[in-house]
Amino acid sequence: MPGSDPPGHPGRTIVVAFIVRRVIAAVLMLAVVSAATFAIFFLIPRALGQTPEGMASRYVGRDATPEAIQGAVKRMHLDDPILVQYGRFAQGIVAGQDYSLGPKKAECPAPCFGFSFNNNQPVWPTLLDRLPATLSLAFGAAIVWLISGVGIGVISALRRGTLLDRTAMTVALAGVSLPIYFTGLVSLSVFAYTLGIFPGGGSYTPITQNPVMWFQALILPWITLAFLYAALYARLTRAGMLETMSEDYIRTARAKGLKESTVVVKHALRATLTPILTIFGLDLGLLLGGAVLTESTFSIQGIGKLVIDAIRGNDLPVVLGVTLFAAFFIVLANLIVDILYAVVDPRVRLS
Amino acid sequence: MRKINVLTLAAMGTTLALGLAACGGTAGGGGNATTGSGASGAAASTAKYNDGYTKVVNPSDAKGGTLKFALTDEPDSVDPGNTYYAWNWDFTRLYARPLMTYAAEPGDAGLKLVPDLAEGAGEASADGLTWTYKLKKGIKYDDGTEVKAADVKYAVARSNFTDELTDGPKYFAQYLDADGYKGPYKDKNLDDFKGVETPDDYTVVFKLKHPFAEFDFLVANPQTAPVPQAKDTGVDYEKTVASTGPFKFESYEVGKQLNLVRNTNWDQATDTTRKQLPDRIEVQYKQNAEDIDSRLIAGQIQVDLGGTGVQSAARAKIVGDPKLKDSTDNPFTPFNRYAMMSTQVKPFDNIECRKAVQYATDKVATQAPWGGPLGGEIGTTAMTPTTVGYKAFDLFPNGADHTGDLAKAKESLAACGQPNGFATNIAVRGDRTKEVQVAEAMQASLDRVGIKLTIKKYPSGDWSAQYAGKPDFVHKNNLGIMVAGWGSDWPSGFGFLSQIVDGRFIKPSGNYNMMELNDKSVNDLLDKGIQTTDATARNEIWAEVDKKVMESAAFLPFVYEKTLIFRPSNLTNVYVHPAYGMYDYTWLGVQQ
Amino acid sequence: MTAPLDVSGQAMEAQPEAVLEGVGGKAIEGRSLGQIAWIRLKRDKAAIIGAFVVVFLTLIAIFAERPFGGLIALFGDLPNVPHNNLIDPMTSAPKAGWGGISLEHPFGLEPVNGRDLFARVLSGAQISLLVAFLATLVSVVIGALLGVVAGFFGGWVDTLISRLMDVFLAFPLLLFAIAIVGALPDQALGLQGNGLRISVIVFIIGFFSWPYIARIVRGQTLSLREREFVDAARSLGAGNGYIIFREVLPNLVAPILVYATLLIPTNILFEASLSFLGVGVNEPQASWGGMLTRAVDYYQIAPHFMIVPGLAIFITVMAFNLLGDGLRDALDPRAR
């Protein structure tokens, strides 16, 4: 049962060793992902016939002379072997790098993901700059879906077979069957442009600038995004609850004469929530790497919008940066979930 | 994809009636030389649809307030020497003064050049190989130091001869006699740059390889706005631009926001084309297009900086509401939207097959994606109506309503030896919805005479470097038709045509003469024109070139692009500048 | 459970072993598992409705354009024929009210060019279902093979495959798909145009979603290999290949079927998202996601243009989900 590891237990060193092992694994995983990502964006285009000049021509404006393109190839070392380029890229992330901006060198401190082809800005600060919008969207939606999804799932499980249960589950099934850009457009159309209750697309304002506007502008995106996940979580919670409720220990608890609410909250819900929280961690990690569709639909200038714009504009350094950034969050979320599990459930460590 | 990027247009400057009212800021100057609607200020609500196209709407000299711009995109750079967007060439004039600029007037008068940093128009030597400009004395940067001729020279050197500043055009590199110069970032000694000479602090002499009668247009490019060598930080200079215009940088967050405030070191007495009405100017980048429209209509912001017009939702609303419609203008932009047929791809090597396409195209269908009549007027020439030298004609009338003359198309097909039609490809920038829709319309309209098109989509980023702009690729992939657009860098026939019709400009990559038209008479006329100093005679030649190009039947114009731009009632002193096809940003004020 | 899109969805199948436990379970009272499942399924009205819709839509997709122009031709209008005369050039919207919905155009007209939406929705159904089925097939083949190998052999093989799954799950799938499809040339690998794009989309979706199937198969295999009949086969001298293909895999058909059914709607949504983001099939071939992209610019003045493809996606995905849920419930006694 969760949480049964008493403090000061001799298992502590094992926990530490476990954590160290997982952290090392996570770092290795990131290295593998970064290499694979780099290969996909640099190797595949090459294999399909892209030349260093072709890549450089994205960096110099239109009407570039052949000399200017050659200059860009040299400056960005696009003609180096791919491994050398990857080495330089990895070095930039770990140790930073210098770039020529004209009369002087610009320092691009670690972690350096290079400069955008499109606006010459370093990628990393741009990412950080876009992060608050994505964080606002992801965390806000997460709160909404966790509460509503788990709540509905529990009620459905307890009222299993009733009209309430069936309605909730039908809505939930509909929720997971709707593309988010469709629900997003419909909600914009109805609530923003027809009824005028909420502001329209593109009205996101940083919380530091105007908390009220921030909140108003995010209500629709939160609800739209949360609807999808809430539907999913309601289904998961309900299934999990039904399963735990039929476990022996629940029957035992009931037989001992515990109050039904205690049984539900203390035992059934607790057991159900552990796997849900795992999934929650992973989902959140994934979203932090950019909610591409939601941000596009609502024109929120977050990480997801950044990457989709970059892909459309062929802005490789930004695409590469965001992909790694997103992978980082996924790996991080995995790591945290693993470690929490290990702390909570000692059996995991031994496996 | 609302970028207009490529090819921007035109020119720069603005100005109003040369020395008239604008100078000195005489009160009530709103009327200036242009028509003006009488009493300043009060007349706000009486403006009608398209009024801003012919006169100054809401004339006012009232100072103060914050003028707010918004843009769906972000600029390539706000460095005047490193940008290629038409709207940005209009906007940079707020803080950067080139040697020459356009007269601040609506209508054709605005296409005339007037001196800005210079005292007068350039003086060409007898052989046409040197152009000399005298600088006005006492023009200062926002820090109070005086502008020197060397700063202009340096600005030209950095924007045209370095690998780092890649976003702007490279006309000076092309025309100046400066072979072997490595640019100021590799070679710190500016004396090694022989293309421009500065005999004293107030004289700039340009040395050309070949005579170029429209050189004044070139120096109206923001790239001649002075940059002090000591202050240049290359790509990063956009964050600390030294201002010579009525406004200077207060703060700039790349991709987000630019704030300008009054430049107290700017002197109205030296400047005939600008005003300094608002206290500050704020620009927000990366805004949602629909949101911009609703804020414009609500008067919360004053200008859509890109000048690309309102979105379809707002357009529908405006069309249905006469009051709203009176707050809009519908100017031509400098863009022509067209397709080119490759003369090197079978069966378009036969002019009759090209003619068949000219006759069979339903130009109402190809106009629809641009937004119908509000988005463009059906075109029949290579040059646009706002290009100096434009003359209207139609060599291939395709039915009274432009929906196609199928009988004539079939005649041409028969003459081409393909009476039942043929199959070919149409190439298009896949990420530009409107252009894809045009290709779809072409597909449907040519299908009526048996010409089967397959649509090929390519990314716009590499469009000219690797696909449609690469003749090898075009031939290999049988790209018979390519959908394109062009807006000239300065509004003359040469500025418009030379890059896209001169046979000697056919490049192995980055080619804009995609039809690969290499007609000696066209090439010769272009050469003759650019060496003709008499403007009237020159402009006649441009019209002749246009006709020759159309005779080849390889150039298929769809629309002369127009935009429906909204003019909020609290925006004062507003008129459409013809060189940009958008409002003159240096004139605007805001009612408080 | 379906994958939500913004996430690429490892979320939902995180604990599949638990849910599916017992699927390969003992036969009760001489009835085969299949018979029991069938009886259960028949009682599940929602699943039956879902099944009918799925069959109906599949038939529509198959017969949309063939033979002889198919259903589309039967109803008159072709998907790529413009009707500019029915569009108001000033607003780009259909002249007639309600998006131009009429007897000739039961779903109305596309803004700007007036193409018939009924024909386009039918035409788009082919793409959606084709991509979804093929991609699911790819991931089932890869996932089942790797999953069974990992579960059966255990040890370093299992470790290797499990790590591989982790790596795949750490890739932001949607981003990759967009970037790769977006960078596709017009011709490669002997294919061109939409043929190439569809192949690549199928491959990417299938290739990145195999871990979901593999995890389930691995878990099931782990328990199966300890079972008596496997031991029996081995004692009779059967080789590993024989045991895997003849003994283990046949017992995994049920869970694979369930998860394949549940993967199809995910893949439909995935394809639609790619098209929505502009990296799906090329116009003028209709696709539901592509129609929605264009609807973005017109949803305020021509809402039907958004609603028609949106509902098409919704109904299809919902039907597959109902069927998949029903199948799972029928095969898993404890999930009810």
UniProtKB/TrEMBL annotation, chain A:
Pfam short name (any one): BPD_transp_1_N
Subcellular location: Cell membrane
Signal sequence interval, chain numbering: none
Keyword check for Transmembrane helix: yes
Membrane topology annotation: Multi-pass membrane protein
Ranges that cross the membrane: 23-44, 135-158, 170-193, 213-236, 276-298, 318-344
Keywords (A to Z) from UniProt: Cell membrane, Membrane, Transmembrane, Transmembrane helix, Transport
Domain of life: Bacteria
Ranges of residues in domain ABC transmembrane type-1: 131-341
First-listed, main subcellular location of the protein, grouped into a coarse class: membrane
Coiled coil: none
One BP term from GO: transmembrane transport
InterPro entries the record matches: BPD_transp_1_N, MetI-like, MetI-like_sf
UniProt keyword Transport present: yes
CC per GO annotation: plasma membrane
Family as reported in the entry's similarity comment: Belongs to the binding-protein-dependent transport system permease family.
Protein name: Peptide/nickel transport system permease protein
Species, as recorded: Streptosporangium subroseum
TrEMBL record, chain B:
Signal peptide residues on this chain, from the entry's feature table: 1-21
Pfam families on file: SBP_bac_5
Domain called Solute-binding protein family: residue spans: 112-502
UniProt GO cellular component terms: ATP-binding cassette (ABC) transporter complex; periplasmic space
Domain of life from the UniProt record: Bacteria
Keyword Signal recorded: yes
Single GO MF annotation: peptide transmembrane transporter activity
Name of the protein in its database record: Peptide/nickel transport system substrate-binding protein
Organism: Streptosporangium subroseum
Sorted UniProt keywords: Signal
GO biological process, one term: peptide transport
TrEMBL record, chain C:
PANTHER family for the chain: D,D-DIPEPTIDE TRANSPORT SYSTEM PERMEASE PROTEIN DDPC-RELATED (PTHR43386:SF1), OLIGOPEPTIDE TRANSPORT SYSTEM PERMEASE PROTEIN APPC (PTHR43386)
Protein's UniProt name: Peptide/nickel transport system permease protein/oligopeptide transport system permease protein
GO biological process: transmembrane transport
Protein localization: Cell membrane
Domain ABC transmembrane type-1: 125-324
Keyword Electron transport listed: no
Major location category of this protein: membrane
Topological type in the membrane: Multi-pass membrane protein
